[in-house]
User: What shape does this take?
Amino acid sequence: MMNTKSPSVPMPDIGNTFSEEKHIVLHLGDACDFLKSIPNDTATLIITSPPFNMGKEYETKTSIESYLSQQEPVIGELVRILRDKGSLCWEVGNFVKNSEVFPLDIFYYDIFKKKGLKLRNRIIWHFGHGLHASKRFSGRYEAILWFTKGDEYIFNLDSVRVPAKYPGKRHFKGPNKGKPSGNPLGKNPSDTWEFVAQEWERELWDIPNVKANHPENTIHPCQFPIELVERCVLALTDKDDWVLDPYCGVGSALIAGLKHNRRVIGCDKEPEYLKIAKERIYSFSEGTLKIRPLGKPVHVPNGNEKVAQVPEEWKHQPGVSDD
Assistant: This one.
């Protein structure tokens, strides 16, 4: 349910068709059709998680070949819309059939390469919870493919530097001998990201996925955590640039953009998701939207919680430890 609007806070003006005059565009409809209405060289950052072909409520499961062929026209439109100095971040997991894993990022790579894009990083997003597999190891990661259109692209590294582990480290030889060897603003977070307090420095992004007890949880079954998008927004765009999510769902990528003063474009074919996206944007403008703080430590049980203790009926079974 939407929050009651305070008269002192102006209602966000959300357009449903693209216009340079708008700050927020949210369109209900088919992504490929909508993208055709956006001019060339508009978006500085395109970031999304497309349907994974898993048979979720918003998609029809088909063969891997058919699924990828359906995505090619959308990708073609996205490449057209992307600015020369822009970036495209494509977040995907695995398609699984009969316990056989098809890594979607590998399948997608050739499509983007054929369109002339260049891969800058394959980023791993790690999360601690998910479905438990019985015939293979349980999946606990997804991949973000970061492509650029050209060799000259926006990369604001200083916006996303992280505290150095050893800031006192110094050069031990050469012309800078004895001087600090790091950067006073921190170090490069690398390409596997783990989001814990004061730690953007790993290449593993450990961000909780949005489940029942997550403050951002809605009805969407595969919801983006807002903080997953924030680093991309900060590093790959400047203020007032356009951020586009062609499969925006409940609007998490849009909120990440608005949080850092970017203009945003979203599209989704599900009316219920778009309704929630609008409500979340209104709540964000009021300052009432619940957002997991960027960099908040991932909860680690201290062992005293009941759910962290070995059940009594398990303790005497072979191979079970009390620890």
User: Anything to note?
Assistant: The chain has one domain: 14-314.
